[in-house]
Write a sequence for this structure.
């Protein structure tokens, strides 16, 4: 008996394989494909036999898509009783053809996109894909008129001939839209896409007014570029020419989103087409854009930025009401804006209590090469479905120029078939669309929004177009791409093609020209091209930043809390419910904290942090703390999340004391992030940029690891205010300290932050006591100043008893930018003042006690920038007979704060005083990796702080 008949015998034996049970069979087969041992033996034998049905070429194949198999079961059931077996030769052959039809449908769903008509330049021939040819499945010419029941397998007619089915498949999957969605594991989502695509065969059916509106948007897109090209010859603008359908797509997305209840949209994009979006989507006045080209726009910022990095906000009307649009500012690091946008969206969602993203929508616009090439995309996508970072799905749009950033050979700028292949890891469906078919682009955008609103997941529309003028308007891409640019030179333009199409449909021979003339007239007078833009609308969810503008870092701020409040809060955050069984080590931590709350023992770092957070949330300031180990703390000092040791499920049994401080308190969120620095820090910066009233903290696992997020620090945190006027109060906690842990676990690169510090753009602090971390965290919110706060937090000091603080330091006082010497010294005997920052103070203090040096004062600089000149000078003047001032640091001489603070120290020294350095010698590495060498270096620098000045000496 043939193997095929054996399969049908198995079918007969399993009489429950009738059409009504198709979902059950489908699930069973899907489980089998994932893990054959996960299904009962009977099912496994059946599916094993099915896998080896001979293909037309006689080979055995295991690559049988499960959906066609399930549909085949249902089809067989429709042909008669579920116990009927097709055992005759004719029936067996017909059954084989029915299964082959399902395989053909599956092939088009899986790889039909590779045959789609996507390239406007038509540079390449279709590749040979045998699976898309009916002959591959053994069909002959005579079979094309056989009629098959397709009601349960292909959305369309109940029955279709093979010829009609083949035409329908090619229209659906191989025309202007190439859809990829079959890698989705959720069957409901796959069927959703099949219904959308196959029911209309991927062909839009728009009325006359919609078609005219699409042409109007294409006209606006091309009109602006042509106007700028003739008026500002040779100036960089990163033209959208060749990708004009993108503007029609954006318009459709915004209007449809508004009709679905979306009230805020945040857009992130790099350069190409940005000016077009500003004018034709967000409604920036063309006259204002022209002023930037003419260099007559007001210069209101210390630095400013080029026009194609600028952000913008506006409110536009939609069928569902006003929608607020925000285009994020973006540097030349292209995709780095993506996590910033996601963070901004999450802040808006939280402010609206909108966890499902029905009111706020993120849109990210990418270039093809950047999307495939920049790692921040993978990191950002990895955040998409995590609890602390989800934004309920992002609509991604790729302006695919088919050439990337440079004019290199396209074979060299990615290793994947599509630039979008990265999204398959998060199961985001993709629609590749021919940019010369604007109606298809618009329809794809409608589906993308529908999918996002339905399933709260990312989705991608990849607009295949071209780049008419090269990377920028000063580029000559034909130097390296002569064939492509010969094609481009012959291309009439998307607007012209579509205008001619509408003219052929009887919509008017001069319609396109009339629209273009009208747009040019609007450009000549510099008026709005988006109608109408709302100028007086203000949402109740808008944030008022005015209280935080034009503030000085020296403004007074009372951060102490009354004793009664301290005790009340301490009791609340150290009381663990009886229903929670903490680990014994955690219980010890909380028992100690309870004693600290009562004043029985000094307050350590973890309790100082917790009390700062508790006092803020009860005062109405939310706290958001994230990082790779933030719940527990990398060094197990925090334990903000208590894990019930008796719990039976992994997703239950946690207790967060800071979320249970008081009724009606502000939220406290502590998030263990994915193993990412760049995207997570970008996300938190974006969050803080839209919520000045939340203490937003990103904590590095080790301060060294902030290296992985350096572009966020450089381009946003350090310079965002002077470039773009964007005020931001994000806090970074960067564990820093030389304790013999090697080159990648010692330094938060203080020198890099010092180098970036100017224009009072940041606050750089290195607190050394529990009370100091308490006050600086409270100061960050209570003071009406929003500047990034960089805290070089300790490691060994977290449990160092000398770094603990008495209770009185929390109920009075404030953050000390300079901590005076705690030792009572006779000022007239002091000959040397040692100035330091951070952990090294405790080493120096211990050495002084051991040697009974009474002529050396030790001063701690707790705020490195803005440097506290007044406090420093006041302290230094206490020792008028000191002839030497020595800066001591753990870090190598070419690192740390030395090269920056030496100027500040010298400025405040007394006449005749000498300034010297004591620390490790210059090094290419942040720290040594040998424990014994570390100890030798540490001893030498501590000894040197009290010895004769060597090396560099500067006299006042």
């Amino acid at each position: 008996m043939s193997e095929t008949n054996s399969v049908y015998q198995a079918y007969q034996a399993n009489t429950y394989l009738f059409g009504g049970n198709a979902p059950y069979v489908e699930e069973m087969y899907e489980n089998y494909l994932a893990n054959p041992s996960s299904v009962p033996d009977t099912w496994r034998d059946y599916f094993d036999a099915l896998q080896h049905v001979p293909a037309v070429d006689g080979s055995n194949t295991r690559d049988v898509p499960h959906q066609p198999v399930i549909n085949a079961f249902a089809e067989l059931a429709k042909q008669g009783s579920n116990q009927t077996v097709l055992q005759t030769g004719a029936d067996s052959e017909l059954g084989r053809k029915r299964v082959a039809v399902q395989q053909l449908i599956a092939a088009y769903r899986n790889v039909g996109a590779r045959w789609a008509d996507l390239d406007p330049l038509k540079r390449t021939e279709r590749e040979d894909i045998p699976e898309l040819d009916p002959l591959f499945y053994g069909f002959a010419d005579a079979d094309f008129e056989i009629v098959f029941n397709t009601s349960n397998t292909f959305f369309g007619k109940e029955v279709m001939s093979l010829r009609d089915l083949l035409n329908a498949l090619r229209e659906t999957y191989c025309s202007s839209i190439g859809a990829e969605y079959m890698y989705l594991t959720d069957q409901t989502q796959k069927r959703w896409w099949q219904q959308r695509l196959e029911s209309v065969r991927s062909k839009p059916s728009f009325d006359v007014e919609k078609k005219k509106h699409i042409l109007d948007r294409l006209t606006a897109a091309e009109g602006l570029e042509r106007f700028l090209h003739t008026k500002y010859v040779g100036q960089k603008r990163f033209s959208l020419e060749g990708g004009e359908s993108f503007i029609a797509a954006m318009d459709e997305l915004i209007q449809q989103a508004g009709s679905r209840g979306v009230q805020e949209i945040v857009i992130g994009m790099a350069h190409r087409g940005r000016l077009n979006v500003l004018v034709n989507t967000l409604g920036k006045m063309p006259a204002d854009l022209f002023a930037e080209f003419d260099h007559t726009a007001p210069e209101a910022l210390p630095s400013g930025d080029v026009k194609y990095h600028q952000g913008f906000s506006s409110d536009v009307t939609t069928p569902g009401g006003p929608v607020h649009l925000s285009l994020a500012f973006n540097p030349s690091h292209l995709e780095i804006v993506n996590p910033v946008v996601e963070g901004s969206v999450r802040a808006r969602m939280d402010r609206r209590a909108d966890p499902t993203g029905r009111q706020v929508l993120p849109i990210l616009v990418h270039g093809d090469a950047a999307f495939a090439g920049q790692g921040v995309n993978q990191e950002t996508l990895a955040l998409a479905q995590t609890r602390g970072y989800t934004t309920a799905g992002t609509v991604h749009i790729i302006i695919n120029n088919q050439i990337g950033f440079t004019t290199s050979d396209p074979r060299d700028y990615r290793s994947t078939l599509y630039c979008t292949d990265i999204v398959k890891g998060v199961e985001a469906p993709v629609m590749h669309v021919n940019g010369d078919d604007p109606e298809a682009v618009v329809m794809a955008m409608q589906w993308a929004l529908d999918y996002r609103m339905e399933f709260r997941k990312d989705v991608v529309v990849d607009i295949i177009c071209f780049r008419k003028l090269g990377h920028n308007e000063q580029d000559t891409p034909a130097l390296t791409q002569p064939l492509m640019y010969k094609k481009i030179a012959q291309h009439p333009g998307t607007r012209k093609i579509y205008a001619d199409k509408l003219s052929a449909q009887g919509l008017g021979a001069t319609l396109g020209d009339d629209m273009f003339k009208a747009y040019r007239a609007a450009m000549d007078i510099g008026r709005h091209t988006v109608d109408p833009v709302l100028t007086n609308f203000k949402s109740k969810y808008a944030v008022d930043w005015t209280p935080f503008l034009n503030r000085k870092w020296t403004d007074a701020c009372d951060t102490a809390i009354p004793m009664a409040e301290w005790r009340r809060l301490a009791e609340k955050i150290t009381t663990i419910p009886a229903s929670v069984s903490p680990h014994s080590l955690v219980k010890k931590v909380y028992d100690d904290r309870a004693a600290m709350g009562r004043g029985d023992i000094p307050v350590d770092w973890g309790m100082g942090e917790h009390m700062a957070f508790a006092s803020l949330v009860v005062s109405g300031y939310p706290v958001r703390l994230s990082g790779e180990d933030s719940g527990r703390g990398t060094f197990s000092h925090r334990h903000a999340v208590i894990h019930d040791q008796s719990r039976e499920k992994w997703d239950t049994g946690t207790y967060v004391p800071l979320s249970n401080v008081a009724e009606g308190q502000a939220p406290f969120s502590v998030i263990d992030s994915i193993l990412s620095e760049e995207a997570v820090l970008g996300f938190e910066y974006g969050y803080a940029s839209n919520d000045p009233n939340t203490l937003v903290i990103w904590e590095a696992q080790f301060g060294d690891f902030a290296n992985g997020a350096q572009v966020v620090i450089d381009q946003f945190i350090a310079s965002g205010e002077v470039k773009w006027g964007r005020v931001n109060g994000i806090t970074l906690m960067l564990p820093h300290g030389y304790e013999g842990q090697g080159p990648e676990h010692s330094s938060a690169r203080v020198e890099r932050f010092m180098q970036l510090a100017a224009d009072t753009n940041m606050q750089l602090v290195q607190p050394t006591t529990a009370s100091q971390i308490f006050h600086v965290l409270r100061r960050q919110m209570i003071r009406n100043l929003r500047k990034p706060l960089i805290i070089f937090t300790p490691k060994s000091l977290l449990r160092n008893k000398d770094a603990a603080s008495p209770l009185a330091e929390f109920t009075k006082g404030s953050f000390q930018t300079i901590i005076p010497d705690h030792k009572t010294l006779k000022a007239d005997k002091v000959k040397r003042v040692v100035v330091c920052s951070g952990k090294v103070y405790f080493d120096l203090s211990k050495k002084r006690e051991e040697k009974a040096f009474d002529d050396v004062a030790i001063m701690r600089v707790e705020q490195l920038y803005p440097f506290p000149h007044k406090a420093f000078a006041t302290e230094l003047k206490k020792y008028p007979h000191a002839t030497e001032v020595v800066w001591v640091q753990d870090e190598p001489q070419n690192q740390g704060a030395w090269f920056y603070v030496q100027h500040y120290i010298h400025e405040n020294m007394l006449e005749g005083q000498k300034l010297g350095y004591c620390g490790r010698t210059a090094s290419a590495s942040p720290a040594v990796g040998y424990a014994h060498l570390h100890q030798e270096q540490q001893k030498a620098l501590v000894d040197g702080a009290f010895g004769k000045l060597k090396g560099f000496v500067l006299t006042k």
User: Anything to note?
Assistant: Residues 208-231 form the longest helix (24 residues). The CA atoms of residues 823 and 857 lie 8 Å apart.
